[in-house]
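Support request, please re-run this one:
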Amino acid sequence: MKILIAAAGSRGDVDPYTGLGAALRGAGHEVALATTDAFAPLVRAAGLEFRALPGDTRPRGDVTDRRGLMRTAAAFLTELGRGFADAVDGGADLLLLSTTTAPLGWHLAEATGTPALGVYLQPTAPTGDFPPVVTGARSLGRPGNRAAGRFALRMADRIAEQGVARLRERLALPPLAASAMRRRQERARWPVLHGYSTALAPAPSDWRPGLEVVGNWWPHVGADARLPEALEDFLGAGPRPVLVGFGSMASGEGERLGELAVRALRRAGLRGILQSGSAGLTAADGPDVLTVGDVPHALLLPRTAAVVHHAGAGTTAAALRAGVPAVPVPVTADQPFWARRLAATGAATAPIPFASLTAGLLADALRRAVEQPEYARAARTAAAHLRTEDGAGRVLEAVERLAHG
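Re-run finished. Output below.
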């Protein structure tokens, strides 16, 4: 079967699909991953065909400004819609659509008659169990959570509206509102597999049939991948260090955050590795601090004492998989949700909101995470749970059912 996975956003919104695609390819399918140009090397390194989607996903301005984020998201989806149809021109027997690409992909599936399956990294369907994850809000009670979830979907449809209209025009389809298409998909019980662990968020009991939580899809790491020699030397030169990184968040704040992180590490008496990320996190290297660029979390995290991170879905899962404690510092969007979920497992300290982060607060949290053994025990328990899940295998089962159904 010729499978096209479509994903867009930050690296954390794309990288898990390299591992999913590699698993599908290993089962004998032809797999292409359509995403923006910045991630072409990741796609090709996984042995997948790369198909380009338009759009620039680099963070701009204040990522905590929700109105600004909505405007940016609407512009991005409109740009994405202009070129989305081109990605399908290469042919596909099945579309696998991410949270970001589904509102556009549904219309491509209609125009081409190609079956489609949702492969989401976040829960989006309204539920009484928790409020919509993108708002970062705390629980509003079961009725309030469901109402907020429905409102969040209406806002998502508004963001997609212009992109949908232009895409349907390009596909010579009659006008159809984004919200009308979403209702159509719900009535048809369109299947969505969610690629995160039930250790963090089990499927709510009030979700409709067709919505499943299957376990993580892990970024592809080549069999010959190794950590850089300088990093290996640092790891071997003393006690396990703490990894500090903010992923695609905090662009332009690297020097300030680097200095803050070093002060916190030294107050806590810990060695540290700063992962530069989009923030450009940096500090003067020395016997107790090293700055690194992109390295596979699967290789590095199991060798750390703890991880300070922004609580993106992918990094949250990677820390749990490694069985090490975490200090979550959520910035925006779904990060407060995952930070609270992670803390609820006992494998992380209480979240420190990014806007409140100080060297003192971070040092105190690091001392607790590293010195109090209950955090490490909870992390190891969660890691054992993750090993029982086979997210890629569950998607493969669904694909085979579609192929033979």
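The chain has a mean pLDDT of 92. The two ends are 13 Å apart (CA to CA).
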